[in-house]
Design goal:
Elements lengths: L2 E6 L3 H16 L3 E2 L8 E6 L4 H21 L4 E6 H6 L1 H6 L5 E3 L7 H9 L6 E3 L24 E5 L1 E2 L10 H5 L3 E2 L2 H13 L4 E5 L19 H10 L6 E5 L8 H9 L6 E3 L7 H7 L5 H14 L4 E8 L6 H14 L3 E6 L17 H24 L5 E9 L6 E6 L4 E5 L8 E10 L2 E4 L7
Parallel strand pairs: 1-2, 1-3, 3-4, 4-5, 5-6, 7-10, 10-11, 12-13, 13-14, 17-19
Antiparallel strand pairs: 8-9, 15-16, 15-18, 16-17, 18-19
Helix pairs in contact: 7-8, 9-11, 12-13
């Protein structure tokens, strides 16, 4: 059967989608390879959140086609995901050697479409149409390439987004929110745990919006909290994580879940985007600075060891020096364990793209550097505080950079490395932290509880 190379850009949702496509292809007899140079089929699962991600994918595809057509004239090339959804036929018009363009609601059709192309039934395929029920079609998992079971797994609980932040293209590429039923999700999680998974991350574009329209509140609990409770009851599961939430979704029922559900990891990713109320309003975020700070305070009262991370956009249209200073002061006040910083880039068809006050790239770069310095400074202090303390980790497997070390993660989402072996994989264990790197902790193997 043909060989397939899949490269993924963007978020964990994209990673999960690629995993599902890979699993479907393997089930049909296709073989996965690690390089486009030996593949019969090359698929890029794309991201549209920032222009740089699109340009990178376009450049990569162009380069692969240029090389591939010389040595493998029958090689098939395809775009999947968000950029495919956004641009559709335009991608083939721009790169005529592309054979397949599949949007975000049609991942489950990829295997059939490749069969059609390989057998000559169709020459070019573009499918970006909406499909009812697509949120429940992606259930397949490829666990560690189909060999050894993974310790962690992503489970998609919904598709789409109804937030319509003015900077974001996701509602246009992923469609409106559609949620899967709780029993269906729990069944998938149970299957994962039966295959050795110890930690599950629940995925959604705005995961805290899960089931708002489909599932009624029960005893004051939102549908998302009801889902967490149901997954929490699975025997053998050690930890539950979720991403990406929205600050608006952190009601008292979710905060209280951190108090009473021990499997819920002590980590909250809260994308604040800006510390300025004026900019937050322009972004259409639906909360202000004070509300955000109240959420952080409640979470730290619920779990004293909770790790709090965030996303921040630098250089939103019209952002003044005072607005930016408000972001700096918010970071100092919250003291995020880490934050992912993004330089604003206009996305076509989003309201922010046509707003007045688009900032020059040089100013955005300068502000990004200042904020990054502050985030790194705060993060270093937070990580230094772990030295000399015990950290309980779930061991995920070998370090990607050093095979003599294994990697685990604390409940508050800190990566820990220590000298170990495959036998530690899947264990929950205590490690004594001896030093820190750049947003990484290192443990002394002499004090590891074996």
């Amino acid at each position: 059967m043909p060989t397939v190379f899949i490269k993924t850009y963007g978020c964990q949702m994209n990673e999960r989608d690629s995993e599902a496509v890979a699993a479907q292809l393997v089930a049909k007899g296709y073989s996965l390879v690690k390089s486009e140079h030996v593949a019969d089929i090359v698929l890029l699962n794309t991201c549209s959140v920032r222009d740089n991600a699109e340009q990178t994918a376009l450049g990569k595809m162009s380069a692969m086609i240029g090389l591939g057509r010389k040595d493998r004239p029958d090689q098939i090339f395809g775009f999947l995901g968000c950029m495919a959804q956004s641009r559709g036929q335009e991608l083939i018009d721009r790169l005529p050697d592309v054979d397949l363009v599949v949007g975000t609601q049609k991942f489950h059709r990829v295997a059939d479409y490749l069969d059609d192309l390989l057998e000559g039934r169709r020459k070019k395929i573009v499918d970006t149409d909406a499909e009812s029920g697509s949120e429940s079609t992606i259930r397949e998992h490829l666990v560690s390439g189909g060999s050894q079971p993974s310790v962690t797994a992503f489970v998609s609980i919904m598709q789409g987004c109804n937030q319509y932040c003015t900077f974001c293209i996701v509602p246009y590429t992923r469609g409106e929110e559609r949620s899967r039923p709780i029993p269906e999700i729990v069944s998938e999680c149970q299957q994962m745990v039966s295959r050795g998974v110890k930690e599950i991350t629940l995925l959604g574009q705005i995961v805290t919006s899960y089931g708002k329209r489909e599932i009624a509140k029960h005893e004051g609990k939102t549908a998302f909290v009801q889902l967490i409770e149901a997954v929490h009851d699975i025997d053998g599961l050690e930890r539950i994580r979720f991403t990406s939430p929205h600050p608006k979704g952190y009601g008292d029922d979710l905060v209280e879940a951190y108090v009473r559900l021990p499997k819920l990891a002590s980590h909250a990713h809260l994308p604040v985007q800006s510390g300025s109320d004026r900019v937050l309003k322009l972004m259409h975020r639906g909360y202000d600075r004070q509300r955000f700070l109240e959420i952080v305070q409640k979470l730290r009262l619920a779990r004293s060891n909770i790790g709090i991370t965030s996303d921040i956009i630098v250089g939103f249209p019209g952002e003044t020096e005072e607005d930016f200073n408000q972001t700096l002061s918010l970071c100092r006040e919250v003291e995020f364990d880490n934050a992912f910083l993004f330089k604003y880039s206009p996305r076509r068809d989003t309201p922010a793209a046509s707003m007045p006050g688009q900032l020059p790239e040089s100013l955005i770069e300068e502000r990004h550097a200042r904020l990054l310095e502050l985030v790194n400074e705060i993060g270093a202090r937070k990580y230094d505080a772990f030295i000399g303390k015990q950290a309980r980790i779930l061991v995920e497997g070998p370090s990607k950079k050093n095979s003599a070390r294994v990697m685990g993660r604390t409940t508050c989402n800190k990566i820990v490395l220590f000298e170990g072996s495959e036998r530690h994989k899947g264990q929950v264990m205590d490690v004594s932290i001896t030093r820190v790197g750049s947003f990484t902790l290192y443990g002394d193997p002499a004090i590891v509880n074996l």
